[in-house]
């Protein structure tokens, strides 16, 4: 049988803690460098990251004890809800229009309803035997309703809301008055969440396999026997961690275009040349050095913010240059 090894959980857990933290710090760093006002989406990243880090720690600790499934399941719902809200409020800072405004609020409501419903359901799954939730799997099976049934429903609605979030910006971007290449670039940035959805779909398929659905009936789940509760749970929780970790990074990458631009080869070469030129001037040329420092700082700022597109219709938010939604659609 193929279990998710403790070393794999440790490696992935640490990786997501480090990369998630870097992504969120970089997100705030970019906003600071651009003197951009922080939005709701930025602040939602902080509790989302806190919960994702907590999930990674729970997985690392629980990979050997097999007693932390409940803690993981309880935290993953608000974590994924906050990540969904981060994406949606980020979209609301970019796009305009009556149709988009309605659609975005519907998805925000759906995300909140999904999170609140399953948070309550998971707490109520064992009735008055709440302690069974964080004890052994045997106790969980004896005192609680079928948690796999709950989790497959959770996963199905999770994927459905994610698909809505993924699809929503596509027609908006395609209607923008900009070159096709830029449209595709913007779509590529906004659709990074596809990776997280893929992890969510994978987890949902595993849940269906566990339940023995006629379409996906199988004796194993990712190499683990379907009747091996501990092995199956380890696989399902692992993919839950994958979904949250990838999603946390993806929601920040969409805002980090200026960060990557500022670390381009060209900007690094310019900085190196500026530093060596200033170093060779000597202390007797302070006024010239000051002038060159000003130029170097200006070039650095340009590398961070990028060239601004002409015309007032463009909205440049955290490095994603887009035009405002067509005026005919504005409400």
TrEMBL record:
Q: Which residues form the Rhodopsin domain?
A: 26-261
GO terms for CC?
Answer: membrane
Q: Where in the cell is it found?
A: Membrane
Give the span(s) annotated as Disordered.
Answer: 276-318
**How does it sit in the bilayer?**
Multi-pass membrane protein
Question: Where is this protein chiefly located?
Answer: membrane
Q: Name one Pfam family in it.
A: Fung_rhodopsin
For whether the record's keyword set contains Transferase, the answer is no
**Which keywords annotate this record?**
Membrane, Transmembrane, Transmembrane helix
Q: Where is the composition biased (Basic and acidic residues)?
A: 290-300
InterPro entries on file: Rhodopsin_dom_fungi (IPR049326), SAT4-like (IPR052337)
Q: Please give the superkingdom of this protein's source.
A: Eukaryota
Sequence similarity: Belongs to the SAT4 family.
Protein name in the entry: Rhodopsin domain-containing protein
This protein's species is Imshaugia aleurites
Per the UniProt record, the lineage of the source organism begins with: Eukaryota, Fungi, Dikarya, Ascomycota, Pezizomycotina
């Amino acid at each position: 049988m193929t279990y998710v090894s403790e070393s794999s959980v440790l490696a992935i857990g640490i990786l997501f803690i480090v990369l998630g933290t870097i992504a969120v710090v970089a997100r705030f760093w970019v906003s600071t460098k651009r003197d951009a006002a922080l939005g709701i989406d930025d602040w939602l990243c902080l509790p989302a990251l806190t919960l994702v880090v907590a999930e990674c720690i729970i997985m690392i600790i629980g990979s050997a004890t097999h007693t932390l499934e409940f803690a993981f399941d309880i935290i993953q719902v608000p974590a994924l809800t906050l990540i969904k809200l981060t994406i949606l409020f980020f979209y609301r800072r970019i796009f305009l229009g009556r149709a988009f405004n309605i659609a975005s609020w519907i998805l925000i409501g759906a995300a909140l309803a999904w999170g609140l419903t399953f948070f309550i359901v998971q707490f109520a799954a064992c009735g008055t035997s709440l302690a069974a939730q964080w004890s052994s799997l045997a106790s969980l099976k004896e005192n609680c309703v079928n948690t796999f049934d709950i989790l497959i429903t959770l996963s199905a609605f999770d994927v459905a809301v994610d698909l809505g979030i993924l699809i929503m910006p596509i027609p908006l971007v395609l209607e923008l008055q900009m070159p096709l290449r830029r449209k595709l670039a913007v779509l590529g940035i906004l659709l990074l969440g596809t990776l997280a959805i893929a992890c969510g779909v994978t987890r949902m398929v595993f849940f269906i396999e566990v339940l023995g659905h006629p379409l996906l009936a199988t004796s194993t789940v990712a190499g683990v026997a379907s009747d091996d509760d501990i092995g199956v749970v380890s696989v399902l929780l692992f993919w839950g961690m994958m979904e949250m970790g990838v999603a946390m990074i993806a929601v920040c990458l969409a805002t980090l275009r200026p960060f990557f631009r500022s670390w381009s080869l060209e900007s690094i070469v310019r900085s190196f040349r500026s530093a060596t030129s200033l170093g060779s001037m000597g202390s007797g040329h302070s006024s010239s050095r000051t002038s060159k420092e000003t130029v170097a700082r200006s070039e650095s700022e340009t590398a961070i913010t990028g060239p601004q597109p002409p015309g007032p219709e463009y909205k440049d938010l955290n490095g994603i240059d887009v035009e405002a939604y067509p005026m005919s659609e504005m409400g």
